[in-house]
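Input for the complex:
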Amino acid sequence: MLNKGVTLWFTGLSGSGKTTIARAIERRLKASGCRVEILDGDIVRTNLSKGLTFSKEDRDINIRRVGFVANLLSRNGVIVMVAAISPYREIRDEVRSMTENFMEVYVNAPLEVCESRDVKGLYAKARAGTIKGFTGIDDPYEEPLDADVTCYTALESVEESAAKVVAQMESLGLVPVVQSVNGRQ
Amino acid sequence: MLNKGVTLWFTGLSGSGKTTIARAIERRLKASGCRVEILDGDIVRTNLSKGLTFSKEDRDINIRRVGFVANLLSRNGVIVMVAAISPYREIRDEVRSMTENFMEVYVNAPLEVCESRDVKGLYAKARAGTIKGFTGIDDPYEEPLDADVTCYTALESVEESAAKVVAQMESLGLVPVVQSVNGRQ
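Predicted:
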């Protein structure tokens, strides 16, 4: 099925659930024949930005690169989901301004919740001081002021969050309206 | 029109005609409804690899990044044309091995011809020693041993070279056979 491309930009703390929600959306969209790619922060760091640090300057360079690749894909009809902490508002807005069909998805969970999940063990290292400049601990996270969708992952299930995002895409005409698992048209 | 994705990798000296041939192919393929992207060496350096030098190590990192992006696009049905000197055989072979539907196009012109064109004025700078490590002057170019297509741009017109590449893509079933400007089916 042909579809317009779009860049879904998931921003939020480490452990907030960005990639998990993206994977749930991927399953839904692939089932309706859409072309989908997930650009996960870790994969991108490995393949596009090895050697960059987590300084503000290097984080911004990394985000610009991801934005460049997302735009290449989305202008060719791919639904691209970027899952990257992307803590700085200004660079997110820069990427938005250079990307057609951009949706910002704020994956919002309290720091305490993200830290208690600590899937990658990074919060423990940040608290111990073995990782410096960790977002939420000793580096700022600038919340979106006007996200297209906000997912509250401490309150919603993954499927609820995914459904909200897909509904917003449908309402913007970015994907065809499809029969969901709950029978919603 | 839907089409399989493919990565066309143009390798050759600076000034050999890589981007020029890619643009000519782009015109042909877009006219038949294909999705096409050109990843030009200069654009890629700006957007993915700013800060990298032209040392062998950094060139290899750059080529791996381009390969990563080309693969993302081609697996989503895009015909990607990479136009990058990519002087080292081993890294070209590495990219080939990680990319489905990969075609290596050797854009072959004698150094003297490329140097006499000197579109960007780089050969003059390399001869003057103000640019170091310039391919063909004081850095090696390793010719492909088994390119899928070789374009001899000192002997062929741009359109002749482009037609050879498109014919090879057609014969491999990578693009639909289309009416060319010369009436070839």
